[in-house]
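hiii so um. not sure if this is the right channel but i have a protein structure encoded as tokens and i wanna go backwards to a sequence. like what aa goes where. can anyone help
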């Protein structure tokens, strides 16, 4: 029971060297002369892990002893990014490890490059989950992340003839030193079958007789707080075929068939779905969702809670935070456990269930709201469908009582949609069951109440709240931008790393010419580093000493990469036609990073067009290298950490009312880029904080955009009335960039913008061009630009994910950070 805690190894180069060599010899079975880069990377990672393990065990022991209120973050995605650098930072081993390796003749940077980042997420939602668990640990909150250990993460993007080609991301190929499997905590997850009359007498109970199951095997990952002695756990589930399958069930001679059948079960955690909108209603995806949720509930109830725990107290012990609707099947699962398995009456079970789930919505696009066909859900999870029906029945009764005679409202609010086919609306289920519903930026939360979930907000106004997103300053400033971090620390001390509002103290330094010069030097060095990496990796050349203008995010029509292209083409066309004198153009590199969902045709065409335009512009000697387009393939966390610190200008140009929050916008501001953006998502809050003088606002506001939509939007009118817009579009449509081809990507994008333009890029074009002119003249005074950049940093402390987590604690969870020494 009371094993004394292992001592943390001594913080010294000697001790670290011993750990490293021991891991190399005993862990990998090689000596230094014969070790591969992977061997050394493993030994290094394992040595670092030793320094955190004692803390991890302590945290787990305290958590078990205290039985404190816990936050379980349920998320189908955790886009973690490289682990080694973060562990080195948290354990305060950066210098020691570098020196230890140098003494052995090894370069730590070379070993870091071996790491394949775990890309277990699509974009914003998955990266947010990773920032949040970092902040939960740093704020000392008892918490656990639950998700899926995909064998293949987000695909690796390559370009072939400028077209996106996806390659599988077998990130576990060489093994991962960061995970610890715990097969002894495996749990079965059942599917299919039918339901029968209950064997217990609880009101509302039935018995589920499922027909097949898989085993969910947990892998634990350390989530270290920033130098605070806490190490939380991220538990990711891997699907295994039931280990005890009985060969007598198969006829003689079917041995190989039986073994082969295992792969069916193991498919469940095989691959991350790379779509992040327009749900496909794929059966395997629903299997994934139920798989990780059922395993996580079971894990918490059976392994975390004491054996005799009275589940009536559950709301004091846990909040299950639902990261979008992906885990919402947890709601009927908990009801099933309480009613069918534990024998509670329905009403008692519902009372508890309604107090333990909270729901975060991450979108505004109606097509991104998940719905599951009743037929599919009923086939895979027949008992859960029955439970959802009953929840809906009672809920609709409540609606009828609150709004007598309003059957239209009842139909709108129903958890079950009738058209086009019967389907379960997961956002409605989450909103009915959750005790809180939050949006991810102020504007988004308002639009949820006023539009997307308006009926629900009228019924339960107090259920709705906002928590504006944030990003972890450890990874996105301290690790990504060491130069800037040192400068900040020299100016105001290092408290900002865990208390980002302290960046305010930089404000006076924005007026200090020495400080500004130092800032510019760092920005320049970061650009150099980026230029070097892009050259080595992809053979890309940047515009020498110019502005770095970055648009990095998933490729989506609503994010309007096409509007960015219209700006680039218009500049190019202006220069070529003599309208714009070349000398007047600020040298600038337009950097794109974007993956398209493999089935999203227009997004893929946009990628092709970006590459085509880039190829033409980059090869045009008459531009004297003043304009460049750099589109490095496979934008991921690793590349983000390289790119964001080098940027001068951050492009956040979605149509107002479409981007829930954005988090890249925050990362750029914190690294001293100025934003050109619409009044959308968290841009609104960034602009309010940094001030209009240090932000380039353009475009319609959300009400203006929705009015224009309602009036009937005609992109053709904009095309006809703005000669520069017309010239840019015509140049694209003419095949100028596509080797004369007018039919492929160029023709398709031309037609879609001029005929439909769902996200009104043409309507915002003129205002965007004007804002870009303001950017050019501001940049011409780089002294004053750098002052604005520093003020952006100083005023963006609000966007720490530590602040987001504090808001979740105050507004939703009611959990308290733990005093470590108690
Ligand atoms: C949605 C869906 C829809 C069903 C099909 C599968 C699937 C997979 C992932 C997603 C997530 C898309 C939603 C998302 O990533 N939203 C982004 O969340 C960020 C964090 O809150 C926010 O900053 C971005 O504005 C928002 O687009």
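sure thing!! here u go:
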């Amino acid at each position: 029971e009371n094993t004394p805690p292992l001592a943390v190894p001594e913080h010294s180069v000697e001790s670290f060297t011993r750990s490293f060599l021991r891991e190399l010899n005993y862990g990998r079975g090689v000596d230094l002369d014969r070790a591969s880069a992977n061997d050394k990377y493993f030994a290094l990672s394992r040595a670092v892990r030793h320094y955190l393990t004692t803390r991890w065990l302590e945290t787990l022991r305290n958590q078990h002893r205290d039985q404190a209120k816990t936050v379980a973050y349920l998320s189908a995605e955790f886009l973690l990014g490289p682990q080694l650098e973060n562990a080195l930072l948290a354990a305060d081993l950066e210098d020691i490890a570098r020196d230890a390796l140098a003494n052995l003749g090894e370069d730590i940077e070379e070993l870091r490059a071996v790491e394949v980042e775990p890309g277990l997420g699509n974009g914003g939602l998955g990266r947010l989950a990773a920032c949040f668990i970092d902040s939960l640990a740093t704020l000392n909150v008892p918490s656990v992340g639950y998700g899926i250990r995909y064998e293949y993460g987000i695909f690796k993007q390559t370009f072939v003839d400028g077209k996106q080609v996806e390659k599988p991301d077998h990130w576990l190929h060489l093994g991962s030193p960061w995970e610890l499997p715990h097969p002894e905590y495996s749990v079965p997850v059942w599917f299919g079958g039918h339901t029968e009359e209950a064997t217990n007498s609880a009101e509302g109970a039935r018995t589920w007789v499922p027909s097949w199951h898989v085993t969910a095997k947990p892998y634990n990952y350390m989530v270290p707080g920033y130098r605070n002695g806490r190490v939380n756990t991220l538990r990711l589930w891997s699907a295994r075929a039931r280990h005890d399958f009985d060969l007598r069930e198969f006829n003689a001679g079917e041995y190989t068939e039986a073994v082969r059948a295992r792969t069916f079960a193991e498919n469940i955690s095989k691959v991350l779905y790379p779509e992040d909108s327009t749900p496909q209603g794929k059966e395997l995806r629903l299997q994934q969702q139920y798989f990780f949720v059922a395993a996580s509930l079971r894990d918490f109830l059976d392994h975390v809670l004491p054996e005799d725990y009275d589940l009536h107290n559950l709301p004091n012990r846990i909040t299950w935070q639902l990261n979008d609707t992906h885990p919402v099947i947890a709601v009927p699962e908990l009801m099933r456990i309480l009613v069918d398995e534990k024998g509670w009456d329905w009403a008692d079970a519902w009372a508890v269930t309604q107090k333990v789930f909270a729901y975060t919505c991450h979108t505004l696009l109606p097509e991104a709201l998940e719905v599951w066909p009743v037929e599919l859900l009923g086939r895979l999870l027949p008992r859960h469908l029955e439970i959802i029906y009953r929840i809906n029945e009672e809920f609709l009764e409540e609606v009828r009582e609150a709004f007598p005679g309003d059957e239209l409202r009842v139909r709108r609010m129903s958890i079950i949609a009738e058209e086009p086919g019967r389907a379960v609306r997961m956002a409605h289920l989450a909103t009915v069951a959750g005790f809180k519903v939050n949006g991810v930026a102020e504007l988004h939360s308002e639009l949820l109440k006023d539009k997307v979930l308006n009926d629900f907000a009228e019924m339960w106004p107090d259920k709705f709240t906002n928590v504006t997103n944030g990003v972890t300053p450890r990874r996105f400033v301290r690790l990504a931008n060491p130069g800037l971090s040192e400068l900040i620390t020299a100016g105001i001390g290092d408290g900002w790393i865990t208390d980002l509002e302290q960046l305010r103290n930089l404000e006076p330094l924005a007026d200090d010419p020495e400080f500004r010069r130092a800032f510019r030097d760092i920005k320049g060095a970061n650009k150099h580093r980026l230029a070097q990496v892009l050259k080595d990796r992809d053979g890309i050349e940047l515009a020498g000493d110019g502005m770095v203008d970055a648009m990095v995010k998933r490729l989506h029509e609503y994010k309007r990469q096409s509007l960015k292209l219209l700006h680039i083409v218009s500049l190019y066309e202006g220069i070529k036609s003599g309208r714009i004198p070349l000398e007047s153009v600020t040298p600038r590199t337009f950097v794109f990073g974007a993956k398209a969902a493999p089935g999203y045709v227009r997004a893929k065409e946009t990628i092709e067009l970006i590459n085509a335009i880039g190829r033409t512009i980059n090869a045009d000697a008459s531009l004297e290298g003043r304009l460049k387009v750099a589109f490095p393939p496979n934008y991921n966390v690793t590349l983000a950490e390289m790119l964001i610190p080098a940027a001068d200008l951050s492009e956040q140009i979605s149509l107002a009312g479409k981007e829930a929050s954005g988090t890249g916008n925050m990362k750029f501001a914190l690294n001293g880029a100025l934003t050109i953006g619409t009044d959308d998502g968290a841009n609104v809050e960034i602009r309010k904080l940094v001030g209009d003088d240090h932000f380039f606002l353009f475009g319609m506001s959300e009400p203006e955009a929705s009015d224009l939509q309602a009036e009937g939007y005609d992109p053709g009118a904009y095309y006809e009335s703005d000669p520069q817009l017309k010239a840019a579009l015509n140049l694209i449509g003419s095949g100028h960039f596509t080797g004369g081809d007018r039919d492929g990507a160029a023709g398709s994008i031309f037609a879609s913008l001029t005929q439909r333009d769902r996200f009104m890029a043409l309507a915002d074009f003129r205002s965007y061009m004007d804002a870009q002119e303001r950017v050019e003249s501001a940049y011409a005074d780089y002294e004053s630009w750098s002052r604005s950049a520093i003020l952006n940093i100083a005023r963006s402390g609000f966007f720490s994910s530590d602040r987001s987590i504090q808001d979740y604690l105050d507004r939703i969870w009611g959990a308290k950070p733990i005093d470590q020494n108690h």
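oh and The chain has three domains: 1-66+93-116, 67-82+117-468+807-813, 545-782.
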